[in-house]
Amino acid sequence: MDEVLSKKSYRIGIDVGGTFTKAALIDNIDGSVAGRSSVHTTHDHPDGVAAGVIQVFEQVLNDAGVDAGDVVLLAHSTTQATNALLEGDVARVGILGLAAAKAAKLAEAQVRINPIELAPGRVLQTCNQFLLSDGLERKAVENAVRALRAEGAQVLVASAAFGVDNTSTEEFVRKVGEEFGLPTTCGHEVTRLYGLTTRTRTAVINASILPRMIATANLTETSMKKAGIDAPLMIMRGDGGVMDIGEMRHRPAMTMLSGPAASVAGSLMHVGMSDGIYFEVGGTSTNLGVVKAGRPVVTYANVGGHDTYVNSLDVRVLGVAGGSLIRIADGAVREVGPRSAHIAGLRYACFAPAEIFDNARVVLFEPKPGDGDDFVAIETERHGRFALTTTCAANAAGLTSPEMHCYASAEAARAAFAPLAAAFGKDVVALAKEVLASASGKVMPTILSLIKEYQLDEDQQVLIGTGGGIGALLPTVADRLGLRFEIAKDAEIISSIGAALAMVREVVERVNPDPSSDDIAHLRTETLEAIGKLGADPKTVDISVEIDRQTGRIRAIATGAAALRSSGETERVSERQARRIAARSLRRAEDEVELAAETPGAFVYTPTEGSRHSLRVVDRRGNVRLQRGHAIVRWTTVEKWQDSFRSMNLFEPGGPTDAFFGAVLLYDSHLVDVTDESLYSNAVKIVDSELSGVAPGTPLVLIGLGRPMSTEKMREENGDGEV
To answer: Which pLDDT band holds residue 233 (cuts at 50, 70, 90)?
Structure first.
């Protein structure tokens, strides 16, 4: 028995990027990185990117000397869904709409989805049939499906008016469709929201990629069995969670943008990111997004200019990164990117020995037909052609350091840039900085937009760098914007780590313009049950509830660690260790930080003087769970929370009685975030539903997020016992 308990077990996370497919081998007990490997992404392989997934899986095990039987979970992100849509590699979709007679006239128009332009020249083709659901007979469904198949439908969508309330007709159509050999998506299984047109469109997009994704799933499973892998296979979703491969066969659209999502999951689970802008730089693209109070910002994916109900992280993808090529014109840098070195089949010049560039010359070339022939490369007599990239520029400018994955010899980088600098009559370092200025100029507007859009306060305006190419862009962007930055540990494989740690996530949405506390409590219970079915450990689950008054939607978002992850008890930090973590985050000396409040699961710290309204919440695992630059804190108990909160004077001066600035409540290690609620009445419903099962005397910390005010004003308004 002792031998079994002491046996090592591992998780493997694999991230499929535009340039490399990377794997991280993670110790299942303590979460440490036990191995890492990478291979070039197998875009052109007959088996597609799945071939690279298996290659890197076998390589990381061989390098670490680990047996495949010791792997308890394999998870990977995938570009398949996104690429299928961008490339137009989709099936023709037959849509069978249904409605009762009294709703038929309006519903028939709403379920008729015209062909969707995915990209220039890439169209998702559709065909349509409509039936009355009153007294629906099997023969009528068979005839409709037969007609759709005759029009070329390869997959089927069943979409019924009010199908989220009564799923029986859609399921009936699915049964018939599959008997005809047509993979089928039901509208209710992609979302439980009303909005028949958007729900149908979402189902159409999902169905269109079913054949390709089912083939990928089957191929991956077969390859895993051949490799002796008996572990569960999980796939990253675009909203930062994971699902098993069986679920992917039904809802493949959920995997759109799963690459960036894996990076965010790694930042949250491995680095403990709580607030800031995540900034991932690969070889081909840069991904930007926001994390607030330990939660990534989520939106609905847009496909070909059309809204869907597919939840995904609000990721801004930019065509500039560590491997971006330089374009020149009139003796200056014209542009950096979007083409990258791997597309051109070139090596980065900075990773070659400096001496090979002694007699090198500048050449202009066209990476792909139609790109234009103003891309620059350096050609040597004996060693061929090399790319000048942003990574080369950062090393030439002396902005990298040995701990960065993209670090290379400054001497080699400058030797590679020398021929181009000479042609321009410029200093080598000055030219390298010109390249970086051009590249960073593509990124800065998006960062400023995110800060404004999500109203990030000063303490939240920190750039958290991940990705192998992060050193090529982050220092320059941060310097030009005057922002703080941090490069995450294991930055180059953070996406693979995120996949391996399997942050389980589930979203349940309903349309309810004025939900009661009981409605919210019911939704929370349903969400907790749903995430439990996905394999989350209940002890790690946090649920946030959002009420959108404009759309009448209520959404519950649950996040947690997979049960396997929590099988080993994580070491708890002491109060002194937590204080040190908070001090570092606050950029203060340890003796300049004090404990303002605590719960059994977390500590709350503020500066001892000066900006006493700055705040950090550090949980017992040593993660900074919340950081704010303007906050007031009060200790209370669950039964007294409303009285205590009302006394904190966080309501809008001169505004409606119900309007307030927002708050976060902390009990044990759970954060109840009502920051985005502008109405106090809605916040009360959300908090009451969260605390309904918590003992009345449980310690509770109220964190009011008011307008920035002076320390003196805070003390005047809030009295003793508050910060």
So the answer is: confident
- Give the C-alpha separation, 462 to 597, whole Å: 25
Indicate the angle between helix axes 680-691 and 517-533, nearest 10 degrees: 50
**Cα angle vertex 108, ends 105, 112, to 5°?**
150
Q: How many Å apart are CA 503 and CA 497, to the nearest integer?
A: 10
Rg over CA atoms, the chain? 27
pLDDT for residue 124: 93
pTM for the model: 0.70
At 279-301, the pLDDT tens digits run: 989 888 888 988 887 777 878 87
Other Cβ atoms less than 10 A from the Cβ of 51: the count is: 20
Tokens describing residue 241: 């969670």
Dist CA 690 CA 668 (whole Å): 13
In angstroms, the CA 70 to CA 66 distance is 7
Q: Residue 389 gets which letter from DSSP?
A: B
| Calpha distance 96→518 (Å, rounded) | 36
Q: Count other C-beta atoms under 10 Å from residue 328's C-beta.
A: 19
Here the tokens at position 404 are 């960065």
Residue written as token pair 């040593």: 622
Phi, psi of 470 (to 5 degrees): -60, -35
Residues 6+ away with beta carbon under 8 Å from 74:
11, 12, 14, 57, 224, 229, 231, 232, 233, 234
**What is the separation of C-alpha 573 from the centre of its chain, rounded to a whole number of angstroms?**
28
Rounded to an integer, what distance in angstroms lies between the CA atom of residue 627 and that of residue 620?
Answer: 16
CB-based contact 493:22 (threshold 8 Å) = yes
